[in-house]
Each structure stands twice: as C-alpha cells, then as structure tokens.
Amino acid sequence: MSEPTSLSPAPPPDPRARRRFLGWTASLSSLTAALMLVPGLAAFLGPLVKLDQGGDWVSLGPESEFGEERKVVPFTYARQDGWFHSLQTRQIVVWKGAEGWVAISTECTHAGCAVQWKKAESKFHCPCHGAEFDQNGSVTKPPADRALARLPIRVNPQSRELEVKES
Ligand code: FES
User: Fold this and answer.
1) Total domains in the fold of the chain
2) Do 65 and 91 lie in a common domain?
3) pTM for the full model?
4) Is the pLDDT of residue 56 over 90?
5) Cα dihedral 25, 29, 31, 32 sign
6) Residue 37 sits in which domain range?
7) Is 129's C-beta closer than 6 angstroms to any atom of ligand 1?
8) Is 29 in the same domain as 110?
9) 3-state helix, strand, coil in the chain (%, to 5)
10) Could you identify the atom of ligand 1 that is nearest to the CA of residue 142?
C-alpha cells in the first residue's frame, strides 16, 4: 500500500531573498564602477604623487670653466608642483674641493636671504641677520641653525660639462 502523495502548490518566493539578490547585484555594480575609475583617478592625481621627486640634471657649462675658486652661478631648473609646471632660478656656489665637485645653495637657512662669499675670510656671510657659514657651508654663527643646502653635482662623461640637479 502506498501513501497518498499531495501535490501542494510551491510556496511563494521569500521577499527577503529577492532583496538580498538585488543588494548583491547593486554592490557588485558599484564595485565594478569604482574599479573602472581607478585608471582615470591615477592619471589625474599622478602629478601630486610626483611632487618633490627631484629634477633633471642641468648643465652649468664645461668643467674647464670651474676650479678650486668658488664661483657663483645661476641655476635654472624645471619644477613640477602638483599640476603646475614652472621654471625656478636659484644661485649656487660651485668649486672643486678635496673630495671632488661641490655645489651649495646661497640661500640662507635662517630666512632665505642670499649669502655672500667672503674670500678674504673664507666664509659665507648673510647680510640680513649676520649668520655665517664656513667654507663648506656649515654654520659658524647663528641665527641660522642648519648648513647651506648641498646639491647633487657630477661631470657628464660624454659632454664633460658640470651638471647639477635640484635634490
Ligand atoms: S636670513 Fe640669513 S641670517 Fe637671517
């Protein structure tokens, strides 16, 4: 003897399952849209990330034009500041020391005035507030409390020109 089978209608769909499915679909769509924005955002924000990464080597002229005498020369370099591109010029002092070529900025580390090289006294003097630096740019008299900034310098092996870059 077999039991009677009942053919009851299928239960109505659970509305919560439908909502969960729509929720997952919306989340997946949002995630896909967000991922598609990543390359565009990277291109747009890239210049901000490149800020202060240092510049290109800039020629100062033939190596033969420089020597042990300290020589003040202008140094113009390209600066990328976020989305803005500009040319900046600063004065630097270049000479050949015991350990090779040296380039230091003439910008006083106290408040930014231009220091002057006093050859007779072998020191840099700042006319604004009287700070002094020795022949290598180290502070010997306040109010400056940091040495003059050094810049990377090299001799280009092909052109034999001295090159510096903003650090
Ligand atoms: S700016 Fe040089 S001592 Fe003040």
Assistant:
1) 2
2) yes
3) 0.64
4) no
5) positive
6) 14-49
7) yes
8) no
9) 25, 35, 40
10) 3
Using a 6 Å cutoff on CB, does residue 118 contact ligand 1?
Answer: no
CATH number at residue 139: 2.102.10.10
Q: How far is the CA of 42 from the centre of ligand 1 (A)?
A: 41
Q: pLDDT digit string (tens) for 70-109?
A: 898 888 887 777 777 888 888 899 999 888 999 999 999 9
Sign of the Cα pseudo-torsion (79, 85, 91, 93, in order):
positive
Task: Please name the residues in contact with 135: beta carbons below 8 A apart, sequence gap of 6 or more.
Answer: 70, 122, 123, 124
Residue 106, amino acid = T
Q: What DSSP string describes 87-135?
A: EEEEEEEEEEETTEEEEEE-B-TTT-PBPEEEGGGTEEE-TTT--EE-T
Counting atoms of ligand 1 from 1, which one is nearest the CA of 127? 2
Please report the atom of ligand 1 found closest to the CA of residue 115: 2
State which of 27, 49, 71 marks the end of a domain: 49
For ligand 1, say whether the CB of 110 is within 6 Å of any of its atoms.
yes
Identity of the residue numbered 2 = S
Same domain, 44 and 65: no
**Residue 34 tokens, joined:** 């967000």
Q: Is 111 in the pocket of ligand 1 (CB under 6 A)?
A: yes
